[in-house]
Amino acid sequence: DVLSWTSAFAGRCVGGIDRYVAVFSSCFIPGVIHCTMTKLTEWLVGLTLIGTVWAALTFNLLGLDLSKQYYEVIWPFPVYLLVCFGCYSLAVVGYRVATFNNCEAAAEELKDQIKEAKSDLARKGFKF
Amino acid sequence: TFKMTTQKLQSEDSRLNDRYSVLLPTYNERDNLPIIVWLLVKCFTESGYDYEIVIIDDGSPDGTLEVAKQLEKIYGSDKILLRPRPKKLGLGTAYVHGMQHATGNFIIIMDADLSHHPKFIPEFIRKREMGNYDIVSGTRYTGNGGVHGWDLKRKLISRGANFITQVLLRPGASDLTGSFRLYRKDILQKLVEKCVSKGYVFQMEMIVRARQLGFTIGEVPITFVDRVYGESKLGGNEIVSFLKGLLTLFTTV
Predict the structure, then answer these.
(1) How far apart are CA B171 and CA B162, in angstroms?
(2) Nearest Cβ partner of B168 from A16, A36, A39?
(3) B39 touches chain A (CB under 8 A)
(4) Of A66, B24, B178, B246, which residue is the least packed, with the fewest Cβ within 10 Å?
(5) Which run of H or of E encompasses A62?
(6) Tens-digit pLDDT profile for residues B116-125
(7) Which of B35, B228, B251 sits opposite A13 (nearest CB)?
(8) Which residues of B touch A86 (CB under 8 A)?
């Protein structure tokens, strides 16, 4: 069961990469049909774009010759991004757990209504 | 004032033509079914909307169908429609089966175990009318929404899972695993055709596909009373199947 799910999942990932290839090839090859991207494909496309910009700056592919100070910030940028995302996630989830409403009143109201329903239904001839 | 009067007359006129079919798939709900039906009747009679309740029992061994028959006698077979099935055949097919027999133009789906309260249905209807939404979904996570019966660990898992889902799927709705919703009948038919998942991943897929197809989704905060008596438990199995379902949706939609 695990094996069949994993192989189906791998198949879908290949499908996502397939569309990813289609997205980029449509830039160079005119006439390639625009496909609907799966969320996986959207992520891959987004990461590729960010990755390309980062690589172009880090490895000086555009010949911009930026000063050392810039490199020291740009080079570890992906790590900074991950750390920021990690902190953001913890903060958001922590906040949402802390402010998760408890509905004690709703539970009490429901208990009362259950009693009311039972007596009303019994009056109408319901046999429990 | 004239424009307001015609608008009021028009909305009342559409009220006269709108009928809300509540689909209740049941399995071993002998104790809860009379209460939920009583609450539904109370809410609809008080709010004045036209309704019917379609009970789809999947061959419950505890006698849920007998209970449903008693309710049909009390409230009338025009309000309580019994459409049972011989055995447990899954939620998606239960909706299809229920819709085939529903005479309403709007479908409300909800749980029959008293975790969803019918008092929110008029709010769903008002929300739908205000924004002309295709779907209105109840959410436990925003506004006055909330839960009773969950400990800290359960809340953490729930919020964590929801966060991952939001990041990966960006669905445009705050509560994806919830199953307290109001759909236009034709839209629900279209969505059920397209969805292939099972269980609560099915509910997630419905919302994600609805967004993909360009339908609008409105949200109403609801209170979710998970087990009026006692504590609710979440097993490791369910977490695994949730993650599997999430990854499936991530790579399919």
Answers:
(1) 11
(2) A39
(3) yes
(4) A66
(5) none
(6) 999 999 999 9
(7) B251
(8) none
From B212's Cα to the closest Cα of chain A, the distance in A is 10
- Answer yes or no: do A103 and B71 touch at CB < 8 A: no
DSSP B124: H
Residue found under tokens 């279209």: B190
On chain B, the residues whose CB falls within 8 A of the CB of A18 are none
Q: Which residues pair with A51 in a beta bridge?
A: none
Do B224 and A104 lie within an 8 Å CB cutoff? no
Rg (CA), chain A: 28
pLDDT tens digits in sequence order for chain B, 253 residues long = 666 666 666 555 555 689 999 999 999 999 999 999 999 999 999 999 999 999 999 999 999 999 999 999 999 999 999 999 998 888 888 999 999 999 999 999 999 999 999 999 999 999 999 999 999 999 999 999 999 989 899 999 999 999 999 999 998 899 998 899 999 999 999 999 888 887 778 899 999 999 989 999 999 999 999 876 555 567 788 888 889 889 999 988 8
ipTM: 0.85
Name residues 51-80 of chain B within 8 A of A (Cβ).
70-71, 73-74
Amino acid (one-letter) located at A92: V
